[in-house]
Structures are given as C-alpha cells and as structure tokens.
Amino acid sequence: MRNFFNQLKPKTFQTLCILMCLFGDLSFSGYMYYVFSDKDAYLQNYSLLKGPLSEAMKQQGMSLPPGFEHEIFQIMLQTLLIMLSLFIIAHGIVYTFYYFQKRFAFLYIRFISFMGVLGALLFTSSTISHNPIWGLNFLAVTIAYIFVIFGTYYFPIASKNKQEQ
Fold first, then answer.
1. What does each C-alpha distance from 7 to 99, 108, 121, 140, 151 come to in angstroms?
2. At what angle do helices 103-127 and 10-36 cross, to 10 degrees?
3. Is the pLDDT score of 92 beyond 90?
4. Do 150 and 1 form a contact (C-beta atoms < 8 A)?
5. Is the dihedral of CA 128, 125, 140, 36 positive or negative?
6. At what angle do helices 10-36 and 132-154 cross, to 10 degrees?
7. Mean pLDDT computed over 42-61
8. Half-sphere exposure of 163 (CA within 13 A, CB side)
9. Is the dihedral of CA 5, 11, 15, 20 positive or negative?
C-alpha cells in the first residue's frame, strides 16, 4: 500500500479522500432513507400504537383524525430529509476545510473514517442477507474508509506548532 501512496500527490489524495468520504456519507444517508421511507413497515408499526393512542385521545374527549398516520409519515420523511441534508452540508463544510489544509478537519475525517469502518461493517453484516446490493455497497464503503485511514497516516496535516519547527 505504501507504493500506491508514494505515487499519489498530497492534493490528489485529498481529493480522493473527500470523494470516498462523500461516498460513505451518501451511502449511509441513502440507506437511512431507504429504511425509514418504507410506508408498509411504518403502517405495520403504527397499527401497534393506534389502539393505545386512540384510547388516550378518547380519555381527553378527542378522536384521531382520518388519515392521521399518513400525515405523521409525511412529517417523519420531511424531518428525515432535512436531517440528512444538514448532515451532508455539515460534512461538505468539513471537507472544504480539509481541502484547505485545516488540522481540525483532518482529525475529524480521520475520526469519522474509523467510525465509518465500524458502522459500514455493522451495516454490511445486517443487510447482506436480505438485501445484497446494500451489503456490497457497505463493503465498498468499508474499503473506502480503510483507504482514507491509511492515507491520512501517510499524508498527515501537521499542527501549526510542528509546521513552525
């Protein structure tokens, strides 16, 4: 692997690193949306809560409006999309700082790469049996994050104190 990194320039690695981290972010976000946008699963879970919720509403002299479960589902999806968008935007800002050689962004990328490997392995093991495409996708994410981890050790961004010495 050292031979491969010897052939890369630091800016080339940074670009690859950002693209691989973005791939991981989009994979995790896409899977979260895939899981939570399943309306049949949501309605199945909602049916478990409908009885107790209706009873609680009756005790207060109210009733559930028709189509309430569909409205809650739409609110849940909109909230999920906003949160995933904020997640992608925040990481985009960190990647921009990393591109401009900021140490905190470098450390953050190294940290999320370690967490990404753990998360991707967990997602791979839980999805490979019932949805092999997502499982293989998370296997690719694991490999991408391992590349980033090794690369950040090979192309570190030193702190200001070390650069001055």
1. 19, 25, 29, 22, 12
2. 40
3. yes
4. yes
5. positive
6. 150
7. 88
8. 8
9. positive
